[in-house]
Amino acid sequence: MTTPRPSTELSADEARRIALRAQGLLGTPDRRSGVRGVLRHLGAVQLDTISVLARSHELIPYARLGAVGRKTVEDAYWKDTHAFEYWSHAACILPVEEWPHFAFRRRAYRSRPHWHHDLPDGVYDQVIKQLTTEGPLTATELGGAKKTSDWWDWSGSKVAVERALMYGEVVCVERRGWKRVYDLAERAVPAALLHDELDDTECLRRLVRLAGRSLGVGTRADIADYHRLKGEQVDAVIADSGLVPVTVEGWAKPAWADPEALATPPRGRHRTTLLSPFDSLIWERARTERIFGFTHRLEAYVPRQKRVYGYFAMPVLAGGRLVGRVDPAREGSTLVARQVTLDGPKAVPAVAQALVEAASWVDCTDVRVERVDAPELREPLVRALSGLPA
C-alpha cells in the first residue's frame, strides 16, 4: 500500500463545480462521441421501469447532450456490443470494456449460499441449452417469466436465466419492450474481454478509480456507493487507485479526488435541464444535500397522500445549482407540470426553459402548469413559458 499524498484543500464551490464537470454537466458536451461517450464518461447509467417523459436511461444522455432520439439512444447502448447490463449502483448499463472488472461480483454471486427463488432440478441446464441453440431470447421465449400474475412469482426458466446472468454465463444484450433479451456471454462479450478474469483486488481498484473519475471528488461513502461496493473494499484499494486525498470546505469527512479533475479549473457553460431522479449526479441523497443543499427523494413508491413533491419529481439544474423540481406528465401533445417547486423568483426563467426544451424533445407542443408550491410564482412561470419559443 502506498503512502497517501498531502491533502489538497477545496472550497465547497470548487467541489461542486468539479462534480458537475465530472458528470458532464459543465463545459461543452462532446457531441462527437454522443451517447456512447456519455456512458463511458459516467461509467454506469441506471435503468428503471418508470417512464414519464422517457425512461431514465434516455433522460441521462438528454440532460447532457440535449435532444437525442430514443432510437439513437438504444442503438448507442446495444448495437455492435458496446454495453452490457449488470448490477452496479443498481441495474445499470455498463461499457462493455468494464466486463472484466465485475468478475469479483460474478464470483460473489456464484458462492452465494441461498437465493430468494428456488431453482428446479435441470432447469438451469435447459435454459443454457436453449440459448445455445436458439438465442438471443427473452424470458417469455425461454418458457415464460412468471408462474402467476404476481410480479415476484418467477417461473423456473426466469429464475435460471437471471441466475445465469448474475454468474456471467448469460448477458442481457438489449431491452425489447422493456423485457431483457438474454444471450450467452461467449457470444455477446468480445473474446478479448470475456476470459480476462481479474482478481478481486484488481477489479476493486479499477471500480474505485472509475467512481472517483465519474464523481470528480467524493468521500469514501460516495465512492463506495457509485458501484455499490463495501466500505472495507474501498479502504483496501483506495491508496493504490490513483485518487488523491483532499479536504473540502464544509464536508465533515475526508475525501478523494480524480487528479485530472484537479489539474484544470472547472469552467464552461452550465446545462439547464430536468434531471432524472436516477441521474448519477444526484442518486446518492446525502451527497446531493452536501453539495447542493438540496433534498432529493423519489416518491413514486410513497403513498400518494404522503408525497411532498410528486410521483416522479425531476430536479431542475441551472447555473450549476438545483433550483427547483417538476413532477411531469404527458396528456397527448401537452407536457403537464403537475407540481412545480421553485427556489424563489430567480428560478422561474430556468424552470420555464427546462420545461419547454423537455416538451420539444418528447414531441409535445404545449406546456400546462397545474400546481406551483409557491402560488405567487405560478403566474410568472406561465408568462415565462408563453414567452419562450416552442
| Cα-based radius of gyration, to the nearest Å | 22 Å
**How many beta-strand segments?**
15
Fraction of residues in H or I helices: 25-40%
Structural class: alpha+beta
The residue-averaged pLDDT reads 92
Count every helix, treating DSSP H or I runs of 4 or more residues as helices: 16
Largest sheet, order of strands side by side?
Answer: 11-12-13-14-15
Percent of sequence in beta strands: 15-25%
Spans of at least 5 consecutive residues whose pLDDT stays below 50 are: none
What characteristic shape results from the CA principal axes? globular
Q: End-to-end distance, in Å?
A: 57 Å
The largest pleated sheet is described as: 5 strands, mixed
List the SSEs and their pairings.
Layout: E1 8-10, H1 12-22, H2 34-42, E2 45-46, H3 56-65, H4 70-78, E3 83-87, E4 91-95, H5 103-110, H6 123-134, E5 137-138, H7 156-167, E6 170-176, E7 179-184, H8 185-188, H9 191-194, H10 200-215, E8 217-219, H11 220-226, H12 231-237, E9 244-248, E10 255-257, H13 259-263, E11 273-274, H14 285-292, E12 314-318, E13 321-331, E14 334-342, H15 348-361, E15 366-372, H16 378-386
Which descriptors would you attach to this protein?
390 residues; five-stranded mixed beta sheet; four-stranded mixed beta sheet; 16 helices; 15 strands; globular
Mind explaining what this structure looks like?
By secondary structure, the protein is α+β, with helices and mostly antiparallel strands. 37% of the residues lie in helices and 19% in strands. It has helices spanning 12-22, 34-42, 56-65, 70-78, 103-110, 123-134, 156-167, 185-188, 191-194, 200-215, 220-226, 231-237, 259-263, 285-292, 348-361, 378-386, and strands spanning 8-10, 45-46, 83-87, 91-95, 137-138, 170-176, 179-184, 217-219, 244-248, 255-257, 273-274, 314-318, 321-331, 334-342, 366-372. The strands form four sheets. It has a five-stranded mixed β-sheet with strand order 11-12-13-14-15, sandwiched between helices. The protein starts with 7 loop residues before the first strand and ends with a helix. The relative contact order is 0.13. The mean pLDDT is 92.
